[in-house]
Structures
1.
Amino acid sequence: MIEVRGLTKRYGDILAVDDLSFDVEPGKVTGFLGPNGAGKSTTMRMMLGLDRPTSGQALINGRPFATFAEPLREAGALLDPSFMHPGRTGRNHLRIAAKTNGIPMRRVQEVIEQAGLAGASGRPVRGYSLGMRQRLGIAAALLGEPRVLLFDEPINGLDLDGVLWIRDLLRQLADEGRTVLVSSHLMSEVQQTADRLLVIGRGRLIADATTQDILNGLGNRQVRVRTPQPDLMFSRLTEQGLTVERVDPHELKVGNSTAEDIGNLAHTLNVAVHHLSEVHQSLEDAYLELTNGSVEHHSRKDMP
Amino acid sequence: MTATTIAPDPDDLRPNVSLGQTFARTCAAEWTRLWSVKATWWFLAAAAFVMLGLGTIAGFESAARPAELPSQPAWTEVRFIALPAQIALFGLAAISVTADYATGGIVAALQWTPRRTVLLFARLLVTVATATGAGVVLAVMAALTAFATANSALTLQFNEFPGFVGTVAVVFAAGATIAAGVGFVLRNTAGALVSLFVLMLVLPQVLRQFGTFASAIAEILPGSGTIFLITRQVPGMTTASSVAVLFAWGIGALLLGWLRLQRTDAHR
């Protein structure tokens, strides 16, 4: 269980994280989404006691992470996979981690094999690809079999085999009752793996809901209706207080409604309906809608 | 701003691990961390090359002296070699701290040992013990090398041995502590090495070329302490003042390093 209350981080004039409060529950994969610079990594570092909050608190399993005598048994984390000594072998990297927490050396071999690094663990990390470093970081996170796992962009650099492995691993960890928090920019991946989503922008919490709720527009269901009498439909729907948008000459998009309601209304009005469907948006659409205005770093599309 | 407080979950299932156990485990991990990179071996090889090489030269120099001159203890004859060799061992102490900042390894280190004071003292203990142990062993080996090549011009009088070992140990322990402290303060390898070179070798000798005020400043630099303890030839310094200066610099560097580690973000 991760509890975050009023977490704030300020760097001089820059407010990186602004009064964040949320819980990450066990038994679920929770996706942590936000544009670049939104404060995801800073928040994760504060959860692990690596960065000092300006105010607020983050608790792992009921206590500040820095108070644990055996922290690897409480929470494992993959942050930046480049944060390793390039001259040290993967196996020694894990041996050091194991020694700090009194973890038996046989567990080092287990996680090496679990991460698919058996052939490379004796080589210096400088020879590892990004994907191999990700696997080594994940192996270190799993070392203490912790109840809480935090992964910052775990899929970066992984090949298809690695992506499938991490997808299954996240689900398995959550099914075992562990708390799993995963930040990612890959919407399709998050849509497949996360049960719940936390969306932040400019350091503030924008949404905290199940993935399905966010895909459904956080309760703002929309219905597309195509009819040969759009003007009549438009006026009757507007009279009922619904938000109606004209998509093209014969098609309307109705907010806060269901296909059943619109179908019933058309039947009452004796209006023909050629198409009627609820709008299913992708997580990418939902994310862009949620984070609109919260993007810190905009790119510019130059006109020819 | 006020911090929100969350009531902690009681959990009696966690094993009771004492602070001493945590410290011992962290020391074991630091030992592996130190010896699992090539840089450690390179610094030790450099120190060995300088000390054994100069020990051999000192032995041949002694052998070339007129036979009627009395034999000198080998310990006294080679004590000066700690001066050039100290930079290699202090460099080892500094880089054992700064390498973690250069590579980002401090992020992993503080995830595994989030009690920062424990990490600082474990790293300090392992580093200083290694630099001091290596310095003493290499100094003794250098004296034996000098004795072997001196053709009876040097002796191995045991009554001089404890003083020799003690002096070398104090010099390397104090210098390594200062080096580790500077590493924690600066978090930068080049900056730490240059600072050590200037504080230990350059400024103590250059400032003495100027007036009284500059000489007074030189007397409170750590390099003056080590130079006096090794050569016994620094005007105005005594054994007590040298030890006091080294002690003060060691404590001061450690305190500043601890404050920076304790109060700031892990990797900034």
Note: Residues 185 and 283 of chain A are 11 Å apart (CA to CA).
2.
Amino acid sequence: MKERIFAAEGLIIRTRVLGEADRIVTLLTREEGKFEAVARGARKTKSKLAAGVDIFAHGRFTFHRGRTWPIVTSLDPIERFNWFRDNPDLYPYGLYLAELTDRFNSGEESCPEMFQLLLDGWQLLGGDVDHALLCRAFELKLANCGGYSPQMHFCTVCGCEVSLLFSPKQGGMVCSRCSATDAVKITAGTLALAKHLIEIPMAKVTKLRAGAEQKSELAGLTASFFAYHLDLGDLKTRRLLPE
Amino acid sequence: MVYPGSFKKLVEVLCRFPGVGPKTAQRLAFYLLGLSRDDVVAIARAMVEAKDKLGFCPLCGCLSELDSCSYCNDAGRDQSILLIVQEARDVLVMERTGQYRGLYHVLHGALSPLDGIGPEELKLDRLEKRIAEKEVSEVIIATNPNVEGDATAGYLARLLKPYSVRVTRIAFGLPVGGDIEYADDLTLSRALDGRREM
């Protein structure tokens, strides 16, 4: 039987209002996976919870298991990501990482790697980083967390040395003999960039820079791959990215 | 328990109000039954009248009678200050303070890309046109002190930069009557940032 009171380290990835003064928050936690919880009275100015149960908050939360939702009973804030206050352009980027994680994660089981990935993503967003590359690295690593990483090193069909064709349907790079109708040609630079983004730790993305053509090609590549394999539909925040 | 059809219908209708469940709806229904016919008619008439006559001012977005806006048409108000709020009900809260005598602009929301609300949905072009055409010297942004409200405020500040207006944000701090001991660290740090000389 599950404990009635439990604690978890979490990131708030979505909020919505409930009734007069309550807020429902979607948390991605390190220990318990993704779930929704209620913060009672969080919209009142005198609420102790108000500041800690907003999106982009990272904290240690305590919950009481309610009948419908767990109820947030206390919180110990660890970090609040405020980069969007100085640079409004970062707001859609932060939300994009949150929406992508929310849609990708079914919430059935915990995934500490995904938690760490989002935490790293939000932490790096405020620093000196190419935001488009950070998003692409995040997308590729998120796919990797779920076991959907595209095959970039050899032909996904015959295993031979690859040419420069990428097929979302076939799950990665394909040679000219095996390519399906959806395969598109990508440049050697974009292929190298994609491989690099998959392999390096998130912190090293800050050191990377790429040309506009490479970034645009890579954005198309990840968007088509996600659309075909992960059935995420239209991501509302993606259309607001200033890319 | 079997209720007469008209009572059941009344309870069902009352359940449509926010925060009203079947139990509360039942209690309200019994209350209405206990009133005189004239009182019930007056309540029903007030609801229909409000629905027919009230709307949002096409200029400022405040709740107003359809033919005139009491804020825009008030010559005694300072026409050079514009206070931006998220919802029409926020105007009533501001008015309750008795401190503000300028004009309002209601956004009817805040930037929330996750809910599909972007700059287009907030009709910010209307705000820009208003500032460009009127002699506005100061814009006070009073969106909610949360992530959505702050992001909207940041976006507005940048949007209004090309216009020669002073853009300010309402102060953040501790609620009156509260103890510092119970304040969260973000509110306290913002209160410290916004401290005033005495």
Note: Chain B touches chain A through 23 residues (CB under 8 Å).
3.
Amino acid sequence: MAIHTPIDTVRTPVPGGPPPGAGAARRLRRRNTLAGWSFILPNFVGFAALTLVPVVAALALAFMEWNSYSTPEWVGLDNFRRMVGSETFWTALYNTTYYALGHIPLTLVAALGFAVLLNRALRGVRFFRTALFFPYITALVAVAVVWNMLFNPDAGPVNQLLRAIGVDNPPGWTTSTTWAMPAVIITSVWRDMGYYMVLYLAGLQTIPAELYEAARTDGASAWQRFRHITVPSLRPTTFFVLIMLTISSFKVFDLIQVMTEGGPGRSTLVLSQLIFREGITQGRFGYSSAIAMVLFVVVLVITVVQFQLQRRGER
Amino acid sequence: MNRHTGRMNRHIGRAVATATAVVLVTAGCGGGDEPAVGDDGREILTIALWNYDSTPEFAALIDGFEAAHPDIDVQPVDILADDYAEKVTTMLAGGDQTDVLTMKNVTDYSRYALRGQLASVADEAADLDQSKYLSLEPFNLDGDYFALPYRQDFWVLYYNKAMLADTGADLTSLTWAEYADLAKQLTSGSGQDTVYGTYHHTWRSIIHSTAAAQSGGDLIGGEYGFLKDRYEMVLDLQDAGATLPWATASTQKVQYHTMFSTEQAAMLPMGTWYAARLIEEKKAGSIDVDWGIAPLPQVTEGGPVTTFGSPTAFAVNNKARNSEAARTFVAWAAGPEGAAAIASIGVYPAYSDETITETYFGVDGMTNDEVAQAAFQPDEVMLEMPVSEKSSDVDVILTEEHELIMIGERAVDDGIAEMGKRVTSEVD
């Protein structure tokens, strides 16, 4: 059976043109295809020039030695061997994972918690929603600088508060290798939770009120309603939030660059920073592309696993 | 579909195709290699530099050069000082065509030069009177030159004259031990009103380069025992509260200028570049500190005065649009005329002779007592960091380990051992 698209069925005669027939239809189709292509083309050219080609080039560069001026030289797996033998790489991978394991669950829980809290007809709810979203639209450098001040071990308000409530020896935060990463995670959770809260709020609007009413009639407690209605109904939103958080956590760069520059020592050095440092600063674009490939594969694998788990959960 | 929409589609299709073609064509042939010429017919010469407004030497050089070469219009490309190295590295990697690049230090210079990003200026170097320069040698890479120095900085000790007046210390020949005692003695007050005896900025050079220069250590050699004494002294001063803790200075991004000019610190080991800013701001009335310059303290008394420093230079970008004008500028700035231009505003030039020295100490607001005269006659100025392909990799490691020692997470001996271990195993 022939499938007729709306275009196929167009038979409007063009004045002065050939009579309607097979040839005209073909011309029309060709013209429409061309028009379609020319609509896509500008965007595609941009995508190809700015994304596709660089990504493919980076993949190739991972197997080369190149300082951006010399002719790239094929070195096979040398860059990967160097990476495996580099303590700094493993430190950065560990730190990135540490950051992700802190940032993802905390942001998710905070975002969901605030969304549920602010999804009621409370007085001033709009104000609180706006206030929570505010950090997300604040310039990241400003966020980092201000939090650095708050975390100042001696005079910073955070430690002053801790001392006031009886903590004798408060953490050194960004001046301590143990506490620098938690400091960065706290800052990033504070900054990101508003954005994900808005996503959850949108998700909450889609849950039919009848479900809650029915549950209430059956005598379900608030926790039971949350546990058995809200959480399952939000599954698609949670999945989306999880994927977005995972990707953003693994490619974290700017916040750490401004707050700690990877320090003290290497305690907050993450993969994106290492890629930047090896490539842009040290001019080892091959090696830095190899690290970028590893980062890509890590994120890809985690995302695929999440998709699988999600699919299994739906069944 | 009616006739009207059909025609409109055709129009849109054509418009989109034309727009695409225009984008492709302009993207393909953007730039161009012909020399840039301004509306007034003068050649445009672009110079990458930092903090143009607060670094008066650049304006002095540009004004002087334009007066000598009225056919050239010099346009600064202003970059934030803190981001300068990274920004220029990124620019060069992207094929930027800025004509002249300021080389902030010799490490960056060697990196750009070894990557082939700078044009040779060996001919211009051959024309210079070598005996008049303290450090032309660091720019010699296997007999070739890729930048010429226009200013020479080295580290000295800035001090607050009023605060040190009663101490009776002989500042012309201070040892580090005497310096430490003095710093403790000068510390007073508490909380917000603390006046520290001295301020050590967060750079590792204050410890590393001083120790290397004065004890003959090699910063890229992988053996760092020579750093121990300096670390112990600095940490002791920190523990005694005689200097702002490193961690505070680092996280709060404290400016050394603020510490010294607002009289929160009585002494400040720092480079000679700082004098120009003090002169200028004092003249403008924005600061009031009565400052002096003394030689950098030494390990022992009576020996030769050794300090460290770094020449600042101009290089010609290998992809410069106005390569000829760029060469003219680089040679002019490195020569006597460039030297005179910056000496007259209190910046110590790379080229020096009697006239230049006279000009320098004659600057209105310049401190020119006996102690200052001594400070400007060091016996030896070592490089802040040796020039080598390894320098920037070693720099990363030393900086990371330095941080750990300074925040007290690693004992001095362990930190020094770790530096050696990492430099040996990670840098090839």
Note: Confidence is low (pLDDT under 50) at residues 1-13 of chain A.
